[in-house]
Amino acid sequence: MGLDQLKSFLQKMQSEPTLKAQVLAASTADDVAQIALKLGFEFSGDELLRFSGKKVGKVTVRKNDVPGEYN
After folding, report:
1. Who contacts 23 (Cβ-Cβ below 8 Å, separation ≥6)?
2. 15: which of 39, 40, 63, 70 lies 20 to 30 Å off by Cα?
């Protein structure tokens, strides 16, 4: 269920520049998931991270490795 919601959210993001800017400004995958939840899309930050490297339309999900981040 979360994967379908994630794909739908990414498709919506492609057509809404304001939403895209919010997502790009988010600090974590969980922050992106919270933005999506407010719009009715339900998936976890972990699901988003596992989707890294995959593409939906014109959007490719990429995990940003932040220096000093603990794994």
Report:
1. 13, 32, 35
2. 63
Q: Which two tokens stand for residue 63?
A: 């995990």
pTM of the model: 0.83
Q: What would the pLDDT profile of 14-69 be if each residue is shown by its tens digit?
A: 999 999 999 999 989 999 999 999 999 999 999 999 998 888 888 888 877 655 55
CA distance linking residue 43 with residue 47, whole number of Å: 6
Nearest residue to 38 via CA among 12, 67, 3? 12
Name the DSSP class of 1: -
Kindly write down the DSSP assignment for every residue of 12-62, as one continuous string.
HHHH-HHHHHHHHH-SSHHHHHHHHHHTT----HHHHHHTTT-EETTEE--
- Which pLDDT does position 66 carry in this prediction? 59
